[in-house]
Sequence to fold (697 residues):
Amino acid sequence: MKGSDTLREGRWSTRLLAVYFVLFIIFLYGAMIVMTVLSFNGPEGGVTFPLKGTSFRWWEALYNQDLSGSNADRIRAAGLNSLYLGLVTGAVTGLLALTLSMAFKRRFRLDGVVFFLVLLCLMTPGFLLSLGTSFFWQWMNIRPDLWKTALGTNVVWALPFGFLVMIAVWNRYDDQIEEGARDLGASAVRTFREITLPLVWLGVFGTFLFGFTLSWNEYDRTALFLTGGDVTLPIQIFSLTVVSTIRPDLYALGTGTTGVALLAVGVGVVYALIRLRRRGAGVEAETQVAEELGEVTGTDADRGITAGSDR
Amino acid sequence: MSQGAEATEQTDTPAGAASAEAPKGSGLELRNLTKVFAGGVIAVEDVNLTVEHGEYVVLLGPSGCGKTTTLRMIGGHEVPTSGDVVLDGESLLALSPDKRPTTTVFQHFALFPHKSVLENVEFGLKMHGVSKEARRQEATETLEMVGLSELADRKPSALSGGQQQRVALARVLVTKPKALLLDEPLGDLDRLLQLRMRVELRNLQRQLGLMFIHVTHNQEESLSMADTIVVMNDAVIQQVGDPLTLATQPANELVATFMGDNNVIRGTIESRDGDRIVVDDGHVKASCIATGDDRGVGDAASLSVRAAGLLLAEDEAGGGAGVNHADCEIVFVEYLGDLIKLHLSAAGERMTAKVPGDLYERLRGSEGSAIRVNWKEEDVQLLAAS
Fold:
């Protein structure tokens, strides 16, 4: 009796959770779904429902400048600017986050203060940071430029995130592995190259991705640092929404970039799954071999005792 | 001579044959070695020690006693505040860890997780500039020596704890160090494996004729493996001796209690007859021969009686009238198979006796009953005044 009550209760809570989950997904992706649907609006359609037929016109407008009202050239130029800026921001952030975080592997005087100083730009409101930095550049007599002012501000913005990622990486890192390498005759530089870097490169790559992503959709901190002709994608999109009527080609752009991002994530996940499965199978097979060896030789102290049962 | 040059010269010699060419020289000397950490914490204080080539030395002590810091100073991972580390007459202090002829086996093994077993083992040779073919051959031979050649292509994460331990050993042995430093090398292994690795490690050391300096907090491990045990506590060496001496003649109360199962009687000297003194703690009197000690009647003195030296009164008579025996209550009977550990209370003072396991039939369930234990004078040791 009691058991079936519990069962019924469990079923109900599962259903409630399922409804909550669906609502949550709609909340998360609703805007994106609307955007995707409207990007296929007919040639006469606008950016709101109802759809006026369907077409690929707005998608075509993304690459065909000859269509009337198309912003293909501007979007392409801004998109390339964003891509390059993102890649360089990612690379610089990765390098700086790695070296900066390495300083924190040991205690030093005022390390706590320095730690919070690094994180300060993460907490400062974006536009204030932008304003302050722009005054600073002006005082330095440096004119706004993609590769000077914009890159600088993007790196300042991304660095605290990358730094935190690397601090987490070092927290899980065993310093004795480096000591082991030094013991075996590796110089400090060799140890860094042969041991440290291969062990943390995934974290460094993570900070690169962080830098790239933050730069890719950065608006607040970049807005004051670009001249009219040399803009990034978010700023181009914003200016298009300001100077002309919004048209579904922006939806197509949004859908397209989201699609590329999802594809990249999907490929990454599948790759990781395949690798994981392959490695798992490998370990299983090897463990079996070890167990057999232990049985056959019977001399090895631990094979028979702990093979396969270990951490 | 740097280790680099040495390793390169020896590349043609299989590691397994290293016993034929055990290092020669005056051995390792720690001279007034002191380490004070930032904040004024004294980790190691004025340590003086000599270790010969081919000797198996165990640094034993509770955690925080300075044994690992001492080991790290020998390996170059910690810089001494003062004092010197001298190997075969040459100071190692100016040398970074990669230039020292010492290598360390770490407690958690510190294997390179991204390299295969073979790559782990040949790493040291690679760093010393040994050619690819030569180092591969040598690493394979060393893996054979530790019985792991079948697993050469595995990553360390796919090995059991014991296998990782062997890889860690192979990895340092292949570089033919003059001194092998082992930091709690058995600490990560389960008990059965620990017992087997003790024997294997000791056999390997004998076979190679190398100087091993092994750090542990495990008394049993030190007794079973060492040629020489160095007991440390509070940054200071308390006693240096062979296992038998440490087990039967602890120098001071600290060593007596740390070595385990020694009964310490703290009292005053009641009488002195030549070298023979009788110490009374108010409940128990014990006598011993105190050659070289000049304390007289009324002076404070502590004695140590080994748990294995305590006999049940009806088995065998011990000392003279009123001396070298204690009337106790049995608190707990701990059956350990071959022997029984009797936890006793002598008027509130805890005592421990180890008696043969075949007495268990008689002692089972005897908690709360009274018993008399006695001991022979030769099992009593006068402890140094502290």
Summary: The longest helix of chain B spans residues 191-208. Chain B has two domains: 3-248, 253-383. The two ends of chain B are 44 Å apart (CA to CA). The interface with chain A takes residues 3-4, 7, 75-77, 96-99, 102-104, 106, 108, 110-114, 123-124, 127-128, 147, 150-151, 154, 157-163, 171-172, 175, 189-190, 192-193, 196-197, 200 of chain B (CB under 8 Å).
